[in-house]
């Protein structure tokens, strides 16, 4: 199978170079959102009245194709927030996931919860962009960054007041966790083969540094899984495809939360 991640990252370098020619860092820093005080995803994930779920808005993916092309950012994200999402994740990659920066800006205008910019970040310019469009958190993917790059990019984000979620898929990648990484996410989906192994989160949980908030990602389709993952030490749960592939993602999220809270209260 071809390495989809390598293809995405190669394209991202080209894409970022082109965007730099259109809009300078100095221009991004003048954006109205750039000066706003960011919200802490770590804090929101620990609020007792929230669900711990980081709910995602995603139109399509390289492995599944079109997931949902019929709903709006406003419809979906406001419902996520209304029913207790601790945070939102918004895809901004256009070529492979059908997302745009405008999707995140819309989500920001309608919601007062932390928003993760979900993209393939390879350059400090993208972090300035994230701040300028209203993001509170950036994603760094250990699979496609060296340890020195994670340290450089996470420090840069920290200095802009953004939190950092580092996504890992194996124990060896935990060596890339650095001081200014706030959250460590375990992706149950292999980014090279796109196969899902749900047990990966539970296996890696005890090995994540104790001062980093643990987030489980991908393959979470059942409220009972949240209970299991909480027992393993996870406080955040990034869920996207499960809700977005439903005809009514808002209703799907509401029903998921209702069932999850029933299980938690047993």
Summed up:
With 266 residues, the chain is an alpha/beta fold.
Secondary structure topology:
Elements: H1 4-22, H2 25-28, H3 41-45, E1 53-57, E2 60-61, E3 65-66, H4 73-82, E4 87-91, H5 101-110, E5 115-118, H6 124-132, E6 137-141, H7 147-159, E7 163-168, E8 183-187, H8 199-204, E9 213-217, H9 223-231, E10 236-239, H10 241-244, H11 249-264
Parallel strand pairs: 1-4, 1-10, 4-5, 5-6, 6-7, 7-8, 8-9, 9-10
Antiparallel strand pairs: 2-3
Helix pairs in contact: 4-5, 4-11, 9-11
Question: What would your notes on this structure say?
Answer:
With 266 residues, this protein is an alpha/beta fold. The chain has one domain: TIM Barrel (Alpha-Beta Barrel). It has 11 helices and 10 strands. Helix 7 (147-159) links the parallel strand 6 (137-141) and strand 7. Helix 4 runs parallel beside helix 11 and helix 9 crosses helix 11.
Please indicate the percent range of residues in DSSP E strands (runs of 2 or more): 15-25%
Counted up, domains total 1
What is the ordering of alpha helices and beta strands? HHHEEEHEHEHEHEEHEHEHH
Main sheet, how many strands, which sense, barrel?
8 strands, parallel, barrel
What are the key terms here?
266 residues; alpha/beta; 10 strands
